[in-house]
Design brief:
Length: 337
């Protein structure tokens, strides 16, 4: 009898144990099956609830620079319009590589974005091994352009077409640029390459745009390729003549001067300013930023700011700006081969 009771108790214990294990396994399986959707939902909610805290806009130039002034104006308008707090953080150094690398190494959650500049985001990366490429970014929008231009003495070439014809004649011409690896120098080499102009053109670097302009006015140069901010003042005074604005948009100081787009050039020479973020940014966050920065761009505060620093208002949304940057990157990297 005692043996029978012991046997029964043993069977009850085994059945209870099996039942408990089965329940635990079932519970564990259910939890495992539900964990992935829970994480996905959390990620989706994070994007849909964006922004839930302050945003940092990294500027890669010094405080008081054109990009810093522009970033603060845009941040002010967005904060006033939406209540979203955008803090501008200046991280200069390494020709922009310090601040830009900081952004590309940040989480792609939208809370760290970049005041991107042509020279810092693409040119510096294409010419130097700085640890990032164009594929490191989600490009959100372009806000402004500070194009380069070709300037000559008024008694020389009458037009851009006449200058090109002279360049193609095989005669030697001296062209001044502000530094051997500057944006204008790189653009001018792309320009020569696109038009198939030979080595009869001598590209001469100067310490500054003002020094190159002085050399042109003094007769040591035939042409300069400089930012419009340097040459346009001499054009307005009649001391020099600007033949071509090397971007897409006419310059507000002289809208009758043809642009690179008018001349049919594929290469572009301009110091653009835009907004970028680490690669892989959620589309809904991209849409949020595109909408907010477009509203800031259209505001009188931002337009007055651009006018005060001599930049041309140029708006490109996410798709157009992304394609534009990809094309510029291809041109820059092809030039270095």
């Amino acid at each position: 009898m005692k043996k029978a009771i012991c046997l029964i108790l043993t069977l009850v214990f085994v059945l209870a144990t099996l039942t408990a294990c089965g329940s635990a396994a079932s519970t564990q399986t259910s939890a495992s099956a539900g964990s992935a959707p829970a994480n996905t939902a959390a990620g989706s909610n994070a994007a849909s609830d964006f922004p839930s805290s302050a945003i940092t806009l990294i500027n890669t130039s010094d405080a008081g620079s054109a990009s810093d002034i522009m970033a603060r104006a845009a941040a002010q308008v967005i904060t006033e319009n939406s209540g979203v707090n955008i803090m501008v953080d200046d991280k200069p150094g390494g020709s922009g590589a310090v601040g830009t690398t900081y952004v590309t190494n940040s989480a792609n959650d939208g809370y760290t974005i970049l005041m991107s500049l042509y020279g810092h985001t693409l040119l510096n990366a294409a010419l130097n091994d700085v640890g990032y490429t164009n594929d490191s970014f989600t490009h959100i929008c372009m806000l402004a352009s500070a194009p380069f231009c070709f300037a000559v003495r008024p008694d020389t070439f009458a037009s851009y077409d006449e200058m090109v014809a002279a360049f193609k004649s095989g005669e030697t011409y001296n062209v001044g640029v502000p530094g051997a690896s500057s944006g204008p120098a790189v653009f001018f080499n792309m320009f020569l390459d696109e038009l198939g102009i030979g080595d009869n053109i001598q590209v001469i670097p100067y310490d500054s745009g003002s020094a190159a302009s002085a050399a042109l006015m003094g007769g040591d140069l035939d042409v300069t390729c400089l930012p419009c901010s340097e040459s346009m003042k001499y054009h307005e005074s009649g001391e020099l003549k600007v033949l071509l604005v090397c971007g897409d948009t006419p310059h507000f100081a002289a809208p009758d001067i043809p642009t690179a787009a008018d001349a049919g050039l594929e290469c572009r020479g301009e110091l653009w300013y835009g907004i970028s973020a680490p690669a892989g940014l959620d589309e809904s966050i991209v849409d949020f930023y595109e909408e907010q920065f477009k509203a800031a761009f259209d505001s009188s505060v931002f337009q007055d700011t651009l006018n005060s620093i001599g930049a041309i208002p140029v708006w490109m949304g996410h798709t157009e700006f992304s394609d534009y940057c990809a094309n510029q990157w291809a041109q820059l990297t092809a030039l270095g081969k």
